[in-house]
Design a protein that fits this description.
Bound molecules: guanosine-5'-triphosphate, magnesium ion
Structural class: alpha/beta
CATH architecture of the largest domain: 3-Layer(aba) Sandwich
Helix content: 40-55%
Number of helices: 13
Low-confidence stretches: 138-149, 369-374
Strand content: 15-25%
Largest sheet: 6 strands, mixed
CATH class of the largest domain: Alpha Beta
CATH topology of the largest domain: Rossmann fold
Length: 374
């Protein structure tokens, strides 16, 4: 193993309402996320616990066990598959003597590395600071106790106050900058919204093939890559179906246990999706965990408040399950799913015509209603 690659031990909690299977699946995903920030998982631990320990999450005895493991394996990171408070991080680091990360840190790091446009960079910084701000409390308390005097602000508390104000100011500034960028985009969006055209949003788990579908449908040159969170910016392309223009939006991919601050700040990026008429919920059907990934995506769709829009489930990467297009028809007949769906391969361009066919009624209905947006 390359000595420059940090070795990570992963720690997951199995809480009262969870099965071991669920915890392991989440840990497996975390392994992929760590890979994306150039770390290497060397093993994982699952701690069964009814409630999280407020001071160090897993309890002191278990922490000592992790320390022994860290020493024995010379691990560089211990990554917890949870969201930790700063005091938990400090308490855990004090015992383990290595870098402690939580799931949010890893996700923010990936997003920061992937962000290309100014808007995406600002959104992520905003999410990160919003995550950190409430976590500053407690830190000052502890430091100010060291100052001794009662009733006066200790140096720790003053430091905390300065840090808090700096973060608040930065958050304010970022919001202004994002507003500015949004204003620039507004005109383009207004034209699209005012038009009678149908708007389709591609939503789904990261790596499901949303950008690949976008590319096939619109011929727009979007970034496609076999990595988590390849797309961080919403991109809009258009296509003509029976002489009618439709707009298609590619969006950022989802994962389970996404820090809520990130979902919140990505709402602006996902605005195009929020304003769409139909959702294509893209699923990698070759992924053995596709059902869970569908549920996660549905939950995020719900948190965006767009669950009542028509949703077409687009099962992609069917070429990884069946060998030829001829077999597809037989497979389709066997495949049972309770919502409207279509089986496609963006890579082989199988069933793309069928996918388009499915939205034809919406295009017609759209024109009949004569949709005009204010
Ligand atoms: N075999 C196969 N691979 C596909 C298909 N569609 C996409 N891929 C591959 O899957 C990987 C992810 O594709 P993307 O289109 O970047 O996925 P995405 O959903 O946009 O991912 P994020 O932007 O990370 O959310 C790439 O390596 C694609 O080449 C398909 O139909 N079949
Ligand atoms: Mg993409």
């Amino acid at each position: 193993m390359n000595i420059n690659i940090p070795k990570a031990i992963l720690v997951g909690l199995q809480l009262r309402h969870q099965t071991k299977e669920e915890t392991l699946e989440s840990l497996e995903e975390l392994e992929g996320l760590i890979d994306a920030i150039d770390g290497k998982s060397i093993g994982y631990l699952v701690k069964k616990k009814d409630i999280k320990d407020p001071s160090n999450l897993v309890g002191s005895a278990y922490l000592n066990l992790i320390r022994e493991l860290v020493e024995g394996t010379e691990a560089n990171w211990v990554v917890f598959d949870e969201f930790l408070t700063p005091s938990q991080v400090r308490n855990i680091e004090a015992v383990l003597n290595v870098k402690v990360l939580d799931r949010a840190n890893v996700v923010f790091e990936i997003f920061m590395r992937r962000a290309k446009t100014e808007e995406a960079k600002l959104q992520i910084e905003l999410a990160k600071l919003t995550y950190e701000l409430p976590r500053l409390y407690g830190f000052g308390e502890k430091l100010s106790r060291q100052s001794g005097k009662m009733g006066t602000k200790g140096p720790g508390e003053q430091m905390l106050e300065i840090k808090r104000r700096t973060i608040q100011k930065r958050i304010h500034k970022i919001r202004q900058e994002i507003d500015q960028i949004k204003k620039q985009h507004k005109e383009q969006r207004k034209n699209r919204l005012k038009s009678n055209y149908l708007k389709v949003a591609l939503l789904g788990y990261t790596n499901a093939g949303k950008s690949s579908l976008m590319k096939v449908l619109t011929k727009k040159d979007v970034f496609v890559n076999d990595m988590l969170f390849a797309t961080l910016d919403t991109k809009v392309g258009s296509k003509f179906v029976e002489n009618q223009k439709i707009f298609i939006t590619d969006t950022v991919g989802f994962i389970s246990k996404l820090p809520p601050e990130l979902v919140e700040s990505f709402k602006t990026t996902l605005e195009e999706a929020i304003l769409s008429d139909i959702i294509f919920l893209v699923v990698d059907i070759s992924d053995k965990k596709w059902t869970q990934k569908v549920s996660t995506t549905e939950q995020i769709i719900q948190s965006l408040g767009i669950q009542d829009k028509p949703i077409l489930y687009v099962f992609n990467k069917i070429d990884k399950i069946i060998r030829t297009k001829e077999e597809l028809e037989a497979f389709e007949k066997e495949f049972l799913f309770e919502h409207p769906f279509v089986l496609v391969s963006a890579q082989k361009e199988w069933n793309i015509d069928k996918l388009i066919h499915k939205i034809r009624p919406y295009i017609t209905a759209h024109q009949d209603i004569g949709f005009v947006y204010a």
